[in-house]
Amino acid sequence: MADLLRVENLSKSFALGGPLWNRRRVSAVNDVSLTVQRGRTLGLVGESGSGKSTLGRCILGLTKPDSGQVVFDGVEVQGLSGRALSDFRRRVQPVFQDPYGSLDPRWPVGRSVRESLDCFRIGTPADRDRRVLDLFDRVGLNPALASRLPTNLSGGQRQRVGIAAALASEPELIIADEPVSALDMSVQAQILNLLLDLQQDLRVASIFITHDLGVVEHVSHDVAVLFRGAIVETGDTDQVMQRPQHQYTRTLLAAVPRPR
Asked: CATH number of the domain that 215 lies in?
């Protein structure tokens, strides 16, 4: 199966505070290479500070890497502009961790879902209205909620809105950065099952960023373990879960609660 996304030797560091002539740099992502195949989910797992979110932002084009390449569908992402950049943004969509911070508090949530349809001029205005209501229904929300503000919805409902917004432009790749960590446990399960159902129905590829290997086991086909900015283990999810090769992976697995 052809790779939809290829990351090659990507590195990113940040300067710490202090005088310009004496600033120390800290490496957030260190020589990372990975691939994502069409229709498959890659779980990117590591503890807080391991570089997961920075890597996700580099792939999305929100953070410029120091070196390395991000190649999407055979095209180098660095340096895209104009129509090519707009096309990339339509085809690669994020789902953020904070279901409230990712929505404009002044807008009815239906407008947030419709925003990418307007931005990319997808369909007629009437088509866009219907698409928004269809998306609410697909993610398990009453379409009547489209007229409400984010403050009138629960955390789980807001995250469903965020997922609907990501799906609006019919992307080929979704990058979900800790999409359930801010939610209650019962709501987490609902959102994870929703993401799993959508992946199976729509065959959209995704990168699922998390610190929880138990979550990765539930939603991912493949897994990459990130430790201090570097990938220390990759493979099929079942293989990594059952026969971990790196001590850090074993430590993460030991932290996953298991029912007796």
From this structure: 3.40.50.300
